[in-house]
Amino acid sequence: MPEVVASGVSFALALLFYSSASALFFLDIARSRARLPSAADTAGPGRQAAARPSAAAALPASRFAPRLLGAGALGHAIYVTLASFVARVCPVHSVHFMLSVASLLAIAVYLVARRRFHIDALGLLIGPLGLAFLLGTFFLGKPNPEPKLNPLFIVAHVMANLLGIALFFLAGAAAALYLVQEKRLKRKRHIERMGNLPALDTLDRAVHRFLTAGFPLLTLGLVTGTTWAHHLEMGNTEEVMRAVFGYATWLLIALVLLLRAAAGWRGRRAAYGTIAGLACASAVLVIYLVRPAAGLGG
């Protein structure tokens, strides 16, 4: 029973930390910058200095949110480990386990890259992502048994897909923030209330870098997955749908990268293409999740 208690405690802590981090990221983005220019523009040097503490007040959310996100990821990892290897309610080869690992990898990459690429605002989407997959692992229960996978397949296919999905999550988050930022700029309204969202060029570069890093992994996952499916001689509805969406994901991301290099596709068009590719990848995951209830494999 101690492992059951430890599992429950780690889940509760991960839930608390993820929720707190998501709230702080939201507050950090929503915080208005308007009061800083208004204080500085309407006052002399002395009053400008007096206005600076409000900038310092913006620091706690930016400082503590990533730490809480990391603490939530640690609790999430402990919970998934106990659920998979001790309680055995979340098999290692199940999609629930894979989604949890993908979200943990996405969080790890984000925490490492956020300062270098100036993408702290992506935490606004990465925090809820980890929270959603944590809850999914907890509430979806034990999935149907999967075919056993040999170690080579796990290394070549599963890990490539997990790392690729983690990078695509980050690319999709950056693309979504790009579209939000661009929409606000085009409306030319409430520009002073844009919070701490990164500049459009910063978000565009982040999208490209994450896609460039994730595309070779997606290609490897697609090739090994096709070989494995052919080896198992599977041709049911579920396999066909997964193949269609998997190839559509690869094609969309390939087009985004190709058109960026050959035709200068950047900004909004690259963001829409990235989100479309992520939507196809998400459809593959949805098929994994709903098939026990929908009977797709029959």
From TrEMBL:
This is Cytochrome c assembly protein domain-containing protein. Keywords: Membrane, Transmembrane, Transmembrane helix. The lineage of its organism: Bacteria, Pseudomonadati, Myxococcota, Polyangia, Polyangiales. Pfam families: Cytochrom_C_asm. The chain crosses the membrane at residues 6-27, 68-87, 93-112, 119-140, 152-180, 210-228, 240-259, 271-290. Residues 79-280 form the Cytochrome c assembly protein domain. PANTHER family: INNER MEMBRANE PROTEIN YPJD. One of its GO terms (molecular function) is heme binding. One of its GO terms (biological process) is cytochrome complex assembly. InterPro entries: Cyt_c_assembly, YpjD/HemX. It comes from the Bacteria.
